[in-house]
Amino acid sequence: MLKYGLALIAAPLVLTASLPATAQQSPTDNLAKISTHLRSMSTMTANFSQTDRSGRLLTGTLTLKQPGKIRFEYQKDANLLIVGDGKALTLIDYEVNQVQRWPIGNSPLAALLNPKRDLSKYGKIIPTRNPDVLSVEVKDPKRLEYGVITMVFSKTPGAPGGLSLDGWVSLDSKNNRTSIRLSNQKFGAPIANSRFRWTDPRRKRRGKR
């Protein structure tokens, strides 16, 4: 089971085709809009569906708190949990009692979890057919081993910065591709830091995840 989460952490979501855009603002303006959204989004909860390159589908709930905190709570039979505590991303596989941990900065998810990151240096707008949909590819050209993430946003009145994150695709250095689609996004609700703790399955004492 561990390998399915690894692609998400170490690993773009082509929700819309990369075709010539019409009636869209300049790439610089759109990068600024996305940056504003990420900086304005204090918290978010959503349902997610994850598909890997083999077509395996997993679902669950996503909890995000800026900066750097995220929790992917998978369906119960997956026995899998991914938590970002502000400094590192931890993948916990309760089926085989394994834990792996990476600095957030070494993951493509850093583009989502570090709202201060300068997208003008690392981001490239991907044209879409729909002027109400923005897509940005983010990668560090000096650290290609960290992977690539392509995030897709829809213009949503009332959402932080007028945008809502619809999902992303992550691609790691081994070309492992994972797609995440979000639904039922909600913003701004208080979220306790305790949501980003986890139980270590390597210990005999097993508690609530």
Structure overview:
With 209 residues, the protein is mainly β. The chain has one domain: Clam (outer membrane lipoprotein receptor (LolB), chain A), CATH 2.50.20.10. The chain is built from four helices and eleven strands. Strands 6-5-4-3-2-1-11-10-9-8-7 form an eleven-stranded antiparallel β-sheet. A hairpin with a 7-residue loop joins strand 9 and strand 10. The longest helix is centred in the N-terminal third of the chain and has 14 residues, at 27-40.
Q: What structural keywords apply?
A:
outer membrane lipoprotein receptor (LolB), chain A; mainly beta; eleven-stranded antiparallel β-sheet; 209 residues
What do we call the CATH topology?
Answer: outer membrane lipoprotein receptor (LolB), chain A
Cross-sheet strand order for the largest sheet: 6-5-4-3-2-1-11-10-9-8-7
Mean pLDDT: 84
Helical segment count: 4
Which CATH class applies here?
Mainly Beta
CATH superfamily membership: Lipoprotein localisation LolA/LolB/LppX
Largest sheet: 11 strands, antiparallel
Mass-distribution shape: globular
The number of strands is: 11
Poorly predicted runs of 5 or more residues: 9-23
SSE order, as H and E? HHEEEEEEHHEEEEE
Strand content: 35-45%
* Domain unit count: 1
The share of residues in helices is: 10-25%
- Reported CATH architecture: Clam
Based on secondary structure, the structural category is mainly beta
**Rg (C-alpha, Å):** 17 Å
Cα end-to-end separation: 17 Å
